[in-house]
Amino acid sequence: MKMPSEAIREEILESGVISFARFMELALYCPETGYYEAEKDIVGQRGDFITSVSTGSLFGELLAFQFAEWLEELRIADCGLRIAEAGAHDGKLAADILGWLQTHRPKLFSEIEYVILEPSMRRQTWQKDLLGKFAPRVRWFSDFEDLRLKTQNSKLAGVIFSNELLDAFPVHRFGWDAKRKVWFEWGVTLDGERFVWKRFENSEFGIRNSELEAVLPDNYAIEYSPTAEKWWREAADILARGKLVTIDYGYTASEQISPARRCGTLRAYQRHHVSDDLLANPGEQDLTAHVNFSALQNAGEATGLETETLCTQPQFLTRILQKAVHGKGFSNLQPKQVRQFQTLTHPEHLGRAFRVLVQSR
Ligand SMILES: C[S@@+](CC[C@H](N)C(=O)[O-])C[C@H]1O[C@@H](n2cnc3c(N)ncnc32)[C@H](O)[C@@H]1O
Predict the structure, then answer these.
(1) What is the number of the ligand 1 atom nearest to the C-alpha of 89?
(2) How far is the CA of 354 from the centre of ligand 1 (A)?
(3) CB within 10 Å: which end of the chain, N or C, has fewer?
(4) pTM for the full predicted model
(5) Is the C-beta atom of 163 inside 6 A of ligand 1?
(6) Is the CB–ligand 1 distance for residue 53 below 6 Å?
(7) Atom of ligand 1 at shortest distance to CA of 54?
């Protein structure tokens, strides 16, 4: 069993320099020892960072209400309906959604299949432990290809969604050389025992904006995630009818290059402390970057999806709550739920950076 730092060191010794995307992949997903593999309790107050899921069950319950509305509309068309979640981690969000549907929409609950797309056997085990009581309704696949191979309906009708999945996908890191007026890619190499940055020569960044480039400072950094765009295209391809949804922090193309983000959006998190030392202690700290929502939007639209919403998390959840308090399943919120709603929507908590993209077919 290799630790991430050993795996990274070996690859660097072989090739001299590796991309930051490969460094990030090994740090986070090295089998059994990567950051997301080794320890289940990294999310939440006692972990390294909080997510909307770890604030309490209201987030999942509001999503369940919204998903039920969407699925009820699709049910009229009478086909096997599914909710597919990726990035389920310990299964808590799935438990909140399934629990609410079971209690408040029992008929729909008995008709749907809840699919978890999970490449890691270890995380599947955590999820199976928590979701045992919903067992007949839940199925696991490693990815879209696995789902396609193992099911009769190789296309999916329903909702495909993720919360804070795409910010955890590996990113390439580019820098701006103001003197030569070119973008270059940052790679990672070794200096003795330490991992250090090293420029790749002759690497070009695909997105150009000459007006902005004229004023960008030297070493201005930006990230690019082909993995996130590929994942979105695959999700869009498999969606026959329904919604493709992601909730995450990120920006649009027009916000991508901003003087306020001179060092890019890549960050490391450990015990609720944010750090710019991205190369320190691989496997022991989370690595994450903002999602490029415009790139996802374009990837989905290229497969024929329509963009329904790209809004902030407070806008999205407030709209659901307004419908939910007049609908079945939510009456007045309990004080605990009011506090959860505030945490999910207040700009000083999770309300500022988080956005929701909904596309449909
Ligand atoms: C930041 S955590 C978010 C966990 C949870 N969704 C939440 O909001 O609390 C990201 C999760 O995505 C998982 N992940 C990364 N790549 C994935 C992939 N290709 N398919 C499914 N899950 C993946 C990670 O292992 C991790 O569990």
Answers:
(1) 27
(2) 16
(3) N
(4) 0.95
(5) yes
(6) yes
(7) 9
Q: Which atom of ligand 1 is nearest to the CA of 288?
A: 1
Question: Ligand 1: which residue has its CA nearest to atom 17?
Answer: 87
Task: Give the tokens for residue 68.
Answer: 């039920």
Tokens linked to 295: 């790139």
Identity of residue 37: E
* Long-range CB pairs of 259-265, under 8 A, 24+ apart, other chains included: 262/217, 262/220, 262/221, 263/221, 264/173, 264/221, 264/222, 264/223, 264/289, 265/223, 265/289, 265/290
Ordered alpha helix ranges (H), the chain? 4-15, 20-29, 35-38, 58-75, 92-104, 106-111, 121-130, 144-150, 210-213, 226-238, 253-256, 293-302, 313-325, 335-345
Determine whether the shortest distance from the Cβ of 243 to ligand 1 is under 6 A: no
Q: Output the residue whose Cα is nearest ligand 1's atom 4.
A: 89
